[in-house]
């Protein structure tokens, strides 16, 4: 079978033209002989391919090819240049055992959101499985100093699909995605004999390796961890499943997020269906209308919303606030408010970290990540956001080194006055009537609040103002009394 795969960054622009090398056909034995003992002064075929790629596609492509030991029965490279987000390089890589060739498209550049696409074909080159989706992960792990740390995983730009499978009489189809240093994500599909007109998205498993010192530099345990989720999502056999809305799976220390999902296993006659089977969230949100930022000299105050996160022990996080987002692009500032009535709240609670995730039809995710410091206080440590703008592009930004909303553990943080959380120079969040408690929530209620300095200043001014008013009143009464007493004495003297 042949796996055609793409891992590309979201870009509203079309791809640029490609440059293709002539097809090179040769035998494997000839390749190996030439590779081991090339003629003096001549390059092997692999070296020639690497040289051509280096000229066309730069050092990245040569370095990538040099990491593969197996020869190519044929090699065909396309270089797409000067995309909005970077450079797209396409290679035909090592063959999958018992199948055709693996087409890997890598997008190079600083992009924070990737769309994955898999078109799996059988021996007759007919499509048997199609999938397109976006995803990211949040992993919590224990550090060497016995604290818990949360790390987001969202860079899937170098994903491969080795092990993806159309299915046979004994095994169902499978999507296998490998990326980064030891990350793998596998989806298994099954059919039930009792229901021949449907199939199941059966299980989803995710594995990560804490031996990756770049992602987990201070992990206490260095090993491979795997989490499994039983999904059992039933899909009509001849329909393509679609779910543009955000979906979340949480298991142990891993939170998985998916959106813009299109998938069809057991494709009939090699043709992907145009009939969509929608997830429940998409049935109520049929169209994702892009956020239209409105530049306002004096923006209106946003509606205050109440959000909560629930785990097996009950409510573990509470938040009440009005939210206003400020985005600056090309020196033009745009301000718009979040409507709590159309916003969903999810998240997770751990001993050392807590996550509040807000999402809507236009906001893929707005994450507030809280952390414990010095074992007795909490604070807002991280904000991540990804949203659809008016031009259809995806705006994503993250800051993992914040320090806002500091309060003692066992209490809540409150600030009625407007506050600004500066995520970056181009993105800020204004909060109104804020109260948040990410840890130690009891009976689903807020604990005693620690007020922000702005509210404290206001509370200090109120008694001062009352005292001044009372002092002024006393002075007026005293003066009136003295004037009255003086008049009385004058009357007695006249008599």
TrEMBL record:
Lysosome-associated membrane glycoprotein 2-like transmembrane domain mapped to chain residues = 462-493
| InterPro entries per record | Lamp2-like_luminal, Lamp2-like_TM, LAMP_CS, Lysosome-assoc_membr_glycop
Annotated membrane-spanning segments are: 90-116, 460-483
Biological process, per Gene Ontology? autophagosome maturation; cellular response to starvation; protein targeting to lysosome involved in chaperone-mediated autophagy
Region annotated Disordered sits at 1-21
Which Gene Ontology cellular-component terms appear in the entry? autophagosome membrane; late endosome membrane; lysosomal membrane; plasma membrane
| Range of residues in the leader sequence | none
- Enumerate the Gene3D superfamilies for this protein: 2.40.160.110
Q: Where in the cell is it found?
A: Cell membrane; Cytoplasmic vesicle, Autophagosome membrane; Endosome membrane; Lysosome membrane
Q: Which UniProt keywords apply?
A: Autophagy, Cell membrane, Cytoplasmic vesicle, Disulfide bond, Endosome, Glycoprotein, Lysosome, Membrane, Signal, Transmembrane, Transmembrane helix
Grouped into one coarse class, the protein's main location is membrane
User: Which residue range or ranges hold the Lysosome-associated membrane glycoprotein 2-like luminal domain?
Assistant: 302-441
- According to Swiss-Prot or TrEMBL, what is its membrane topology? Single-pass type I membrane protein
Cystines in this chain: 243-279, 415-452
Q: Return the PANTHER family for the record.
A: LYSOSOME-ASSOCIATED MEMBRANE GLYCOPROTEIN, LYSOSOME-ASSOCIATED MEMBRANE GLYCOPROTEIN 2
Family label: Belongs to the LAMP family.
Report the protein name in the record: Lysosome-associated membrane glycoprotein 2
Source species:
Bos mutus (wild yak)
